[in-house]
Known about the structure:
Layout: H1 5-24, E1 40-44, E2 63-64, E3 73-80, H2 90-100, E4 124-132, H3 142-152, E5 160-169, E6 175-184, E7 187-196, H4 214-232, E8 239-240, E9 260-261, E10 267-268, E11 273-274, H5 276-281, E12 286-287, E13 293-296
Parallel strand pairs: 3-4, 3-5, 5-7
Antiparallel strand pairs: 1-6, 2-8, 6-7, 9-10, 11-13, 12-13
Amino acid sequence: MKKSFVTLLLMFALLLTAGSILLMASDNDSLHGKPEPQAAGIHWAKGSGAGQAGRSPKTPNLSWHGGPIMQNAQITAIFWGPGWSNPGDKISGLDAFYGGMGGTWYDKTSDEYTDASHTVSASISYVGHVVDNSTATGGGSTSAILSEVCKMIPNPVSNGFYPVYVDVGRGIAGYCAWHSAGTCGSVIVQFAFFFNLDGDVGCDPNDSASGHSEGLAALANVSGHELSEARTDPHLDAWYDSKGAENSDKCAWSFGPTLVPFNNGTSWKLQGNWSNSAYNSTTRGYNNLSGQKGCIDGGAFH
């Protein structure tokens, strides 16, 4: 019996989604001489089975796996695609987001994590943004996003974090964003990828209080997620739990009761970050989707 056209389309969509996820989960890593960097901290969309509460282990705390942390971060945002010629409030909003976060309690949600000689600090500086009006690609290839970073940032720095925002919608992909690391010339860089999330219910934090557009609120929330993970696990070999979840993964889609204030007077609806200290104390933090009380956000919960 022949399959209906609709059934064939659904099967094709599932295969494309699976292919993207398998590509991002590959072991290739340009830091070790392989062509395709690994993607980590994948911010799964709401309703995506890979990102639900079952990922958290019975012993939920993060442990150090020997890799470096980012003691401080210098950020340059990259907006890629011709669609950014009409950005609405998103470019100016993300400028305010990154420009206002340095030294905030939100940044300090990651300051308990260390490597052999350094501690994650709240020292974050924002250089500004650049725009590339050429046609953007999606997030299925980490090497394509790394190539865009190397193209647009002529003098990268080792403590650089380079978020790449494309004008391409998420479509059938099951994720909103991810972060990774690779090399531009001889410099190791940290970078991240973000879809255009306008009207995307799967990546919408449902922010009705800040006054930001839905697209900006969604990008800010996942941007905080990926930056926090890049600071605590920049080369994907530092802080994560026994199932590979990083500090922001463990609090995905778990929000405190208030907006998170930044130093420039802006406020944002942001998921918390996992704190071993908060979980161990039993008197701090709020629950993640697994009911584990270890999330802090720098707003109501420090």
